[in-house]
Design brief:
The protein is mainly α. The chain has one domain. It has 6 helices and no strands.
C-alpha cells in the first residue's frame, strides 16, 4: 500500500477508535449541555429542586425543546468527527441514544418524576434530531 493510500485508509483499529471517539464526543456534548442548562434553570428557580417531580407541561416542553437542539448539535459533532461514513455514525448514535432514553423513560415513569409523555418524547426524538444533525453536516460538507 502506498503512503498516500495509508493516509486515506488508516488501520481498522485506528478508525474504530476514532469512530468511538466521534460518537462519544456527541454524547458528551449533549450530556454537558443538557445538565448545564438544567442546573442553570434549577438555580434560577425556573425548575423545582432536583429530585422533586416536574409536572408542569410547559417546563417539560422547554426541557424537550433544548434537549432536541442539543441532540442536533451532538449528532452534527458525531458526523463532523467521524473518520468515514458520517451518517452511519449518526445512526449508531441515534440507536444508542434511543435505547438509553427508553430505559430512562421506563425508570422516570416508574418513579413518577413528571408526565409520562416527556421521557417517551425524549426517547423518540433521538431519530429526527440525529437526522437533522447529520444532514446539517452533509450540507456544510457539500458547500
Amino acid at each position: 500500500m502506498s503512503a498516500h493510500a495509508a493516509t486515506l485508509y488508516p488501520p481498522a483499529s485506528r478508525r474504530l477508535g476514532r469512530s468511538i471517539a466521534a460518537v462519544g464526543l456527541g454524547f458528551v456534548a449533549v450530556f454537558v449541555l443538557s445538565l448545564g442548562t438544567d442546573q442553570v434553570l434549577h438555580i434560577l428557580n425556573v425548575y423545582p429542586p432536583w429530585g422533586e417531580p416536574m409536572n408542569d407541561p410547559g417546563l417539560n416542553a422547554l426541557a424537550l425543546a433544548y434537549r432536541c437542539v442539543y441532540g442536533v448539535i451532538g449528532s452534527y459533532l458525531m458526523a463532523r468527527f467521524a473518520p468515514s461514513a458520517p451518517m452511519r455514525h449518526v445512526w449508531i448514535g441515534a440507536a444508542i441514544g434511543f435505547v438509553l432514553s427508553a430505559a430512562g423513560a421506563v425508570a422516570a415513569i416508574q418513579m413518577n418524576l413528571g408526565p409520562a409523555w416527556y421521557p417517551i418524547a425524549l426517547a423518540f426524538s433521538a431519530w429526527p434530531t440525529a437526522w437533522i444533525g447529520g444532514n446539517l453536516h452533509h450540507r456544510k460538507e457539500v458547500e
